[in-house]
Design a protein that fits this description.
Three copies of one chain form a homotrimer.
Chain A: E1 2-11, E2 17-20, H1 22-32, E3 37-42, E4 48-54, H2 59-71, H3 86-95, E5 98-104, E6 107-108, E7 114-120, E8 126-135
Antiparallel strand pairs in A: 1-8, 2-7, 3-5, 3-8, 4-7, 5-6
């Protein structure tokens, strides 16, 4: 059993944005030398998230962000947090701050249409992504 | 440390459906020979998800699907994805495409009322479920 | 590779409540003797969840619970589950019943503002939290 940990940085350009980080995570996997196991992709921020969804058609990200904006409005009567980003915190807990992907034959075992996304909900900002690969 | 990986197939019958896959995952655990560790249950599809919820009363699945349909309508002004299944992609990111369950004494350490469900959001379809057991 | 498992109990005081359990999880990590690896925090209940969000300002928890109450009303026409807690089951599947946190240098590698919360959606109740630490 081997554990390899590597972080990388990204910069978002909009308040709400889904950034495809599949290639960065794949690089960590290939460099790890691990053949079978799993990868944790973790977001150490409370106004962002990690999700897996279709990355072939960018309309999918658009529609996910549209839906989240509709479910969690930027301003809602009753919000108490004074920084004006309560919506971003709520979206973070709904989507979740990590994903787990299996590794088979030295590659991420994603489905045909799956990509890994960093979800920015309070950008533009400079952000960190943590990746841990475990296996043999 | 041992890693055992096994996939299985299921077929959904409705557009939206929660299918109890607890027994299939339990079988992978018993066959793995692993006593203590964890199981990852992973859905390699972008219009489906994995969740853990009550499986004693089927009304719970009904009410979860009802709530998701209310939060994420099938057709919403502004959706750009042309395949007519934007709602399914959104539900997938809200529920999440994997679950992690502990293994103790060769069995899934689920709570009394917990079962593992494959959530179909764009069926009927033939689907795959990936299970990885890690432990000793 | 070492696996350490420890459960602890908590008591909620309200129907909906986010309880900061970061210090309890941190204790399990320090007592485990594991330097690098990860921690699974798992909720074995179907009307509760685990999330990671800001724990510096309690307004964030307030706003997350407010948003969840708005998205998933306590009573909705069409609910079939007869126990009156369908909303709690739905919130559980939306937020998710576990979180995964990396361990670096014997400590939880949480972001600056991140804390781990047990989310009660059908309290007040006595609840269990399961923690598994894996690593070396």
């Amino acid at each position: 059993m081997k554990i390899v940990e590597k972080d990388f940085s990204i910069s978002s350009k909009h308040r709400n944005q889904m950034i495809d980080i599949t290639s960065q995570v794949s690089s960590v996997v290939s460099q790890s030398g691990i053949t079978n196991g799993d990868a944790i992709v973790y977001c150490p921020h409370t106004t962002a998230a990690i999700t897996i969804n279709e990355n072939a058609d960018p309309s999918v990200s658009h529609d996910v962000l549209l839906t989240l904006a509709d479910i969690v409005p930027h301003h809602r009567p009753g919000y108490r947090h004074s920084e004006g980003n309560s919506d971003a915190h709520c979206k973070s807990s709904l989507v979740g701050c990590s994903e787990l992907i299996l590794i088979k034959d030295r590659t991420l075992a994603l489905g045909t249409w799956q990509g890994i996304f960093f979800c920015e909900f309070d950008g533009p900002r400079h952000r960190e992504v943590m990746v841990q690969i475990r296996g043999e």
